[in-house]
Amino acid sequence: MNGKKLNIGLFGFGTVGCGLYDVLKRIGSKNVEIKRICVRDLSKQRPIDAEFTDNADDIFNDPDINFIVELIDDADAAYTIVKRALQMSLPVVSGNKKMLAHHIEELIELQARYNVALLYDASACGSIPVIRNLEEYYDNDLLTSVKGILNGSSNFILSKIFNEKMSYADALKLAQDLGFAESNPSLDIDGWDSLFKLIIITIHAFGLYVAPEDIFTYGISNMNDADIRFANEKERRFKLVAHVEKLQGNKLIMSVMPQLISRNKYIYSVEDEFNGVVIKGLFYDKQFMFGRGAGGYPTGSAVLSDITACLYDYKYEYKKRNDSQMPTYTTDHSFRVYYRYSDYADLDLVKFESVSENYISDEYKYVVGKVSLRELHKVQDELRKRNVFIAAYPND
């Protein structure tokens, strides 16, 4: 595409779509222009003078449009748009992490078949270029783990709780009032948003695709004041952490769950709506990436970075997917957790291999002990329904 102008067909004009439009306008790009915008509701007033449509065909049938950007929140519609673009050999940038987490293997195959690029750095951590770094810099077997705070909304809530002594309910309401959390905040606080990003990151870190339903996912919505008190007593903080790690025997474990983080860890001090990713390798130990994970301008600028990369014919190469030594996914791994429960039926739900701490009072009860990821995965739906809370409790 060198020397060629990108005429963009944009799908979606929400927070990120507006952010991208403003960023492009502000930098005055000569070789990137949004030609037409497809939206769901044409009657909505918009403060810009642009060509809008509510019919996808108007974009796909426009011979001048040579690039597609998809920034909508409907995963099924996003899949239809991205697939159609690839089949027309139109390069496309997507921001829909749920769609990618479910369909990425098929979309990788379509990219190869039609020799066209699909880029989505903006889908994983907003302004942090984690995917491009995993593709380019960590494209060898030295990588051992990627973990971090991948969701700004839940992190904002936890920051308010631990820094300003807010209750969970008040912190959630503030996040909603400021637009960091949706009116239905489940996607963020129950860990789903982090899960989708983790799946995408894992494809680029280790080459392996693992389906969302196979990964233990548990959020912070069951957390209460007793849990916060426990964390404070131990001089730790809860953070909602997405984690993929390669173990001995070339086995890969993955999870999204709250963790009790000690003060000496990088992500302990990642505050508010920021994201932080720790990449660990065999010989370079830990490297830390930090930045805004959400919002119109940070994510819009990440989308622009993807668009600019396509000007130079950049594609993800998925090198690790061609590796004969690709790891295998497992849930056969035990680790220490904190588990707060209400009655003994809740305690029976989790099969502890060993118990190192057991506390019972009129107010609340908890156990600290070792459990298997496999056992937790079996009961994750039940854990969400009951008045319990579970968090990983690393030894250091």
Quick recap of the structure?
This protein has 396 residues and is α/β, with parallel strands linked by helices.
Structure characterization notes:
- The protein has helices at 15-27, 56-60, 75-87, 97-114, 121-125, 130-136, 152-164, 168-177, 186-189, 192-206, 225-233, 296-311, 344-349, 373-378, 380-385, and strands at 6-11, 32-38, 52-53, 67-70, 92-94, 118-119, 143-149, 216-217, 236-247, 251-262, 274-281, 285-292, 328-329, 334-341, 354-360, 365-372, 389-392.
- With 396 residues, it is α/β, with parallel strands linked by helices.
- It folds into two domains: 6-119, NAD(P)-binding Rossmann-like Domain (Rossmann fold, 3-Layer(aba) Sandwich), CATH 3.40.50; 135-292 and 326-392, Dihydrodipicolinate Reductase, domain 2 (2-Layer Sandwich).
- Strands 7, 8, 9, 10, 11, 12 and 13 form a seven-stranded mixed β-sheet that branches. The protein has a six-stranded parallel β-sheet with strand order 3-2-1-4-5-6, sandwiched between helices.
- Helix 1 (15-27) packs across helix 12, helix 3 (75-87) packs parallel to helix 4 and helix 7 packs across helix 8 (168-177).
- The termini are far apart.
- The model has no long low-confidence stretch (mean pLDDT 93).
